[in-house]
Amino acid sequence: MSLRPEDLTELVERAAERERASPDRYPIESVSELFRSGLLIAPFPGSLGGDGWTPLDAVRAIEMLSAAAPSTALVAAMPLGLAGIYGAGADVAPPEYRAAWIAQTERVAADYRSRRLYAACNSEAGAGGSLAATKTVARSVGKGDWRITGTKILASSGANADMFLSTAKVSQEDLPGAGVVEFFYVPTHAPGVEIANDWDGFGMRATESQSVHYEDAPASEICGFPNFIEVVQPVTYWYCLFAAIPLGCATGILNALSVPAPASPAIRLRLADARMKQEAMSAYLYETAAAWRPAAGPAYAARVLRMKTYVSAEATKLCAELFALSGGRHYRRDGVVARLLADSFAGTALRPPLSLALDMLVEGFEG
Ligand SMILES: Cc1cc2nc3c(=O)[nH]c(=O)nc-3n(C[C@H](O)[C@H](O)[C@H](O)COP(=O)(O)OP(=O)(O)OC[C@H]3O[C@@H](n4cnc5c(N)ncnc54)[C@H](O)[C@@H]3O)c2cc1C
Fold first, then answer.
1. pLDDT tens digit string along 294-309?
2. Mutation pick for ligand 1 pocket among 19, 339, 355 (CB with most ligand atoms within 8 Å)
3. Residues 258 and 205 in one domain
4. Are 157 and 210 part of one and the same domain?
5. How far apart are CA 185 and CA 165, in angstroms?
6. Which residue, 66, 81, 109, 236, is most buried by CB atoms nearer than 10 A?
7. Radius of gyration of the chain measured on its C-alpha atoms
C-alpha cells in the first residue's frame, strides 16, 4: 500500500489552515488535494488506481482530517464511503449482476481518477433521516435511462459536486426486484437539477450542504443492482465514517487544550480523563469498522447503529465538557475550539440522526 492514513499529516495541516482562514468557504483546494493525494480513491483496488484501503483505514483518515478540518472531513466522507463499497469487490453482486457490477466499479473508479466528485444527496425534510420515508421517485424512460423528481436537503458539496448519489422510490414494473428505495446516479449539472444556495449550518460551515430539487432530472443508472441497499447494506460503511467525525472534533479540542500543557494539576487530570474517553471511543469505532463487510447481516447492522449512536453522542458531550474547561481565550465565535464544538454536533445529526437512532435501538431491543 503506498498511501497510508498516517502519511496525511501535512495534507491535514494545510486543510486545517484553509478552514481557519476561511471557515465559511467551500474547501475547493483541499478537495483537489484529497484527489491528488489518492485519498478519495484509496479504497479501490490498486488495479483501478486505489490502494486497497480497508474500512478501518478510511475511518482513521476521516478521524485525522476531522480533528483539524471537520468540514473537509465531512465532504470527503461521502465519496470515500462510496469508494469503500466498490472496494468490497465483485462478490458483492449476485452472479446475474456480477459483470454489470464490475463494469460499474471500473466506470466509477475512472471518474475518481479524472477527479469527478461524487456526493450524497439523500436526505429529505420530514423524513427524520429514514430511507423508507423517501418521497423522491424515479421512473424509467427506457434503455436504462431514468427521470427523478423530488426535493432533497443537506447535500454536502452542493454545486461543487459532479455526481449525486440519490435515493428514490421506483416501481416493480420499472425495476423488477427493486427495494424500498434505490440509489441513482444524477449528474449535478443536468437539466432538471436545481441546487439551492441555502446552506447556513450551525457548524460545518464550509460544507455547502445545500437543498436540491429534481424535476424530471436524468439519472444515468442505479448504483449496483435491484435492492442494492438491502442486499449489500452499504450504509453501515458511511455510519462508521460519520462516527469518526465528532470523535475527531473531540480529539481536535483535546489537542488544542493540551498544548502547551496546562499548569493546573486539576486541568491536567480532566484532560487525562478526556483522553481515556476519547481512546475508549476510538477503540469501539475501530473494532466495529474493522469488522465491516458487505451483507454483514442484522446483528452487525445493530452493532454499527449502537456504536454510531454512542460515539457521536458521547464525543459531542466530550467536546462540550472540554469547551467548558477551555477558558476565555477560546471563547471566540470564530475560534478553533468553538468551531470544533459546533462542528461536532453534525455527528448527532448525520444519518441516522440521534432521534431516529434511539427509536431504532428501542425497536430492536423490543424485537
Ligand atoms: C452538516 C450536515 C451535512 C449533511 N450532509 C448530508 C449529505 O451530504 N447528504 C445527505 O443525504 N444528507 C446529509 N445530511 C443529512 C443527515 O444525514 C440526516 O439524514 C438529516 O440531518 C436528517 O434530518 P431530518 O431533517 O430528515 O431529520 P431530523 O430533523 O433529524 O428529524 C426530524 C424528526 O423526525 C422524527 N423521526 C424519527 N424517525 C422518523 C421516521 N422514521 N420517519 C419520520 N420522522 C421520524 C425525529 O424524531 C425528529 O424529531 C447532513 C446533515 C448535516 C447536519
1. 999 999 999 999 999 9
2. 355
3. no
4. yes
5. 5
6. 66
7. 20
User: Which bin fits 201, alpha (ψ -120 to 50), beta or left (φ > 0)?
Assistant: beta
For the chain, what's the residue count?
367
Last residue of a domain, which of 164, 195, 226? 226
Cell of 103: 463494469
Residue 319 CA, ligand 1 centroid: distance in Å = 22
Q: Is a pLDDT exceeding 80 seen at residue 1?
A: no
Q: Where in the sequence is the domain holding 57, given as residue range(s)? A: 5-116
Overall average pLDDT of the 65-70 stretch: 98
Q: What CATH number is associated with residue 99?
A: 1.10.540.10
Query: If we measure between CA atoms, which residue out of 346, 259, 365, 249 comes closest to residue 306?
Result: 365
Give first-to-last CA distance, the chain, whole Å. Answer: 43
How many whole angstroms from 77 Cα to the centroid of ligand 1?
17
CA-74 nearest atom, ligand 1: 3
Q: What's the gap in Å between 133 CA and the centre of ligand 1? A: 11
How is residue 246 written as a grid cell? 465528532
Buried b (16+ CB within 10 A) or exposed e, 46-61: eebebbebbbbbbbbb
Q: How confident is the model at residue 311 (pLDDT cuts 50, 70, 90)?
A: very high
Pocket test for ligand 1, best of 166, 204, 356 (most atoms within 8 A of CB): 356
Q: Record the pTM.
A: 0.96
Q: Same domain, yes or no, for 17 and 88?
A: yes
Which residue, 116, 149, 168, sits at the end of a domain?
Answer: 116
Say yes or no: 250 and 353 in one domain: yes
List pocket residues of ligand 1, CB cut-off 6 Å: 74, 78, 119-123, 125, 127-130, 133, 154-156, 201, 204, 207, 209, 346, 349-351, 353, 355-356, 359
Average pLDDT over residues 232-261: 97
